[in-house]
Design brief:
BACK domain-containing protein, alpha+beta, cytoplasm, 24% strand, BACK, PHR, six-stranded antiparallel sheet, 13 helices, 3 domains, four-stranded antiparallel sheet, Jelly Rolls, 389 residues
Length: 389
């Protein structure tokens, strides 16, 4: 027998399982899957990952491998590709990676890309990759309340994207075509926040808005229309909210949930926005709360939402965002009603009836809608997230 034949028959001798699998990959023994990746259609044997949990990733093959991993439900390989992309994320490529995450259904990568973009908005929107994203990703970015940019920059960025999209669609970059390709994203631009002079010179001189839209913005600028009736969002992005905490005591245990609602009434002395409700978490075990929140004024339902909140005993409170924020009129009583399904939670007492925020008074009152023990002195609703209008 030749040594080559001996090697081919006895290759498993004195090898560990990982070494055997590595040998199978290197010598293409029993290969059952081959990926063709990159522009050069380079062959990558599946054994490299399936049998050894190793893969050589680079900028040329990572996207193709991610597609293949998702198609064939190879979760580990998908995780490796996602981790590689996350490690190389910058403000220059965050929008490009957001688009890839959107295309391939990578929810965690998508969230991390959005965080990078919203944490570094000006650099990200000025990047070349921004104008390459799809309309759906564009809307997610532009519509975000956490996009901390002057609205003039947002407007100009959307127009840059529109020009690029016109080019991709082989259209002239006219105002009519810009509006057409932008579509409903136009309503994510907060035109009422533009400086009046900028609006007059950069928007009114173009055919981007129809007469009714222009009238809505102008009326808002001159404060002759209610915020809720404006056709475009009139409130600022990334407003510095104030946590208004109503309990003076440390959180206590334990508050049971029996299917009955907890509720609190509150009022403000000046116009404000309600951005969220602060709720308590589980005091004993990890628990996912199912929360139903209703906000009423004079018996009318102003806001309703259902949300699941993952809570841990080491964290006592959680912010439940209200989007879009609710405008609170001065001197008007509102009632927040909350149904929670889950384990017993923390609770507070020694409630303060009045708290001063700047020069604004925030008052808390008991309400007959509360059936589970919460009132102005104790219970749930440890605080509100507010900002001045």
């Amino acid at each position: 027998m030749s040594s080559e034949k001996n090697d081919s028959k006895g290759w498993q001798s004195r090898k560990s399982l990982p070494e055997c699998l590595e040998y199978m990959f290197e010598n293409r023994l029993s290969s059952d899957v081959t990926f063709l990746v990159g522009e050069g259609q380079k062959e990558v044997k599946a054994h490299k990952y399936l049998y050894t949990d190793k893969v050589d990733l680079d900028a040329d093959n990572v996207t193709s491998l991610l597609v293949a991993a998702n198609k064939y439900e190879i979760d580990g390989l998908s995780d490796h590709c996602t981790a590689y992309l996350e490690a190389g994320m910058t403000t220059d490529n965050a929008c490009l990676l957001l688009e890839k995450a959107h295309m391939y259904g990578q929810k965690e990568l998508y969230k991390k890309c959005m965080k990078m973009i919203l944490d570094n908005p000006e650099e990200s929107l000025n990047s070349q990759s921004f104008v390459q994203i799809c309309k759906e990703c564009l809307e997610k970015i532009v519509d975000s309340d956490k996009l901390a940019l002057k609205e003039e920059i947002v407007f100009e960025s959307v127009m840059r994207w529109a020009d690029a999209e016109c080019k991709r669609c082989e259209l002239e970059p006219s105002d009519e075509n810009r509006r057409q390709v932008v579509g409903k994203v136009l309503y994510a631009i907060r035109f009422p926040l533009l400086e009046k002079e900028y609006f007059d010179e950069q928007v009114l001189t173009k055919d981007l808005l129809v007469e009714s839209e222009i009238a809505s913005v102008v009326k808002k600028q001159y404060k002759v229309v209610d915020l809720e009736k404006c056709m475009f969002k009139p409130y600022k992005r990334l407003i510095n909210t104030t946590k208004v905490i109503r309990f003076e005591s440390d959180p206590k245990c334990k508050w049971p949930y029996n299917g009955q609602p907890d509720a609190i009434s509150f009022a403000v002395s000046d116009e404000m926005f309600l951005h969220g409700i602060i709720i308590y978490g589980s005091f004993e075990t990890d628990c996912t709360y199912k929360v139903k929140l209703d906000v009423f004024h004079a018996g009318y339902l102003l806001h309703n939402q259902h949300i699941e909140v993952d809570t841990k005993p080491e964290q006592t409170t959680y912010n439940m965002e209200i989007l879009p924020p609710l405008k609170l009129e001065a001197g008007v009583r509102y009632v927040a009603v909350m149904h929670i399904e889950g384990d017993p939670s923390y609770w507070g007492d020694r409630g303060k009836n009045e708290i001063i925020v700047g020069e604004t008074q925030v008052q808390f009152h008991s309400t007959t809608r509360s059936k589970n023990g919460t009132d102005k002195n104790k219970g749930q609703f440890p605080g509100l997230l507010l900002s001045h209008a």
